[in-house]
Specification:
Number of helices: 9
Shape: globular
Number of strands: 11
Radius of gyration: 21 Å
Helix content: 25-40%
Structural class: alpha+beta
Largest sheet: 7 strands, mixed
Strand content: 15-25%
């Protein structure tokens, strides 16, 4: 590439690890402060959630959702629509850590659609109150493919749909189906990751706006079949960058290569949500989700051909 574009190698930045001292701030009130941590957004959230060993994973629930699964020091090539990525390198003499990444296009934005699109709620937070009015969706599924489906399905021709509607369907069922959609989609990504990596998920660490809802996180645990761990302080991206920088300068004895040195970091107020459904009930609902996904796929393709 350097030769193709006629560039000089000496103008390119050096490749550095995620955790080492790169320099110091030269001016201003922070003059002399070391710059010691560089990491991407979702990778920083992985570190901030202390997913530092193989089999640990996190999900950031924003307008969309972003799942990362630590695969250790080996690159795992996905056959199921996931992205292989460098997670971090915890020092210049450390081996890089790798991860599988799966992006979900719609998570919190589906709740915004309930408010702005169909006026089902007045405020985003009301979705929890509404969804709590029913114990399940009575067979209703909401495939939130507003602009197709991303990982692990990757179908740009999929369309959003509410399927399983009956004369008994209420706004509460629709609200609950909206929360369940993010949970089902997360399970699909996690299962693809576990299969590709040949290693099960230990638990799912979570952050992002939707995690403010206890109900949404309990639904995630129930439909995913795994424990969901939510810290009280959920600015995981900033924390991850800070942990890598702190590790580089030996702050508080932190060492990202040794997760035990971080055991007490951000543990106050942490809450664990455990699955409460029977295996049979969970799998019945999962089969229904997969049927709903299948119905949504290829919709615009069929429409265009007509």
């Amino acid at each position: 590439m350097v030769n193709f574009f006629g560039l000089k190698k000496n103008i390119l930045p050096q490749v550095k690890s995620s955790s080492e001292i790169y320099g110091e701030i030269s001016e201003g009130v922070l003059k002399g402060v070391k710059i010691a941590g560089i990491v991407g957004d979702q990778q920083a959230a992985l570190v901030g959630n202390k997913c530092l060993t193989k089999g640990e994973g996190k999900n950031t629930y924003g307008t969309g959702a972003f799942v990362l699964f630590h695969t250790g020091d080996a690159v795992v090539k996905s056959n199921r629509g996931l992205i292989s990525t460098v997670a971090y390198q915890a020092g210049p003499n450390s081996k890089p850590a790798y991860a599988l990444e799966g992006s979900i296009a719609v998570a919190g934005s589906a709740i915004s659609w309930l408010r702005d699109g169909i006026k089902l709620i007045d405020k985003v937070g009301q979705v929890n109150e509404l969804a709590a009015q029913c114990e399940d969706t009575a067979g209703l599924y909401f495939v939130t493919a507003f602009s197709g489906l991303l990982a692990p399905y990757w179908d740009s021709t999929a369309a959003g749909m509410l399927i399983g509607l009956t004369s008994y369907t209420t706004p509460a069922h629709i609200a609950r189906a909206t929360l369940e959609a993010a949970a089902f989609h997360t399970r699909a990504v996690v299962e693809a990751m576990a299969t590709d990596a040949e290693h099960g998920l230990k638990n799912l660490k979570v952050d992002g706006g939707m995690t403010n809802s206890d109900l949404a996180m309990q639904i995630q645990a129930d439909l995913g079949g795994f424990e969901v761990i939510r810290p009280e302080m959920r600015e995981s991206t900033a924390l991850g960058a800070a942990l890598l920088a702190g590790s580089a300068i030996g702050l508080f004895g932190w060492d990202v290569n040794d997760p035990h040195t971080l055991e007490k970091v951000n543990t106050k107020g942490s809450k664990t949500f455990k699955p409460s459904l029977t295996e049979e009930d969970m799998e019945t609902r999962w089969i229904g989700w997969k049927k709903a996904i299948q119905r949504s796929r290829g919709w615009t393709e069929a429409y265009e051909s007509d």
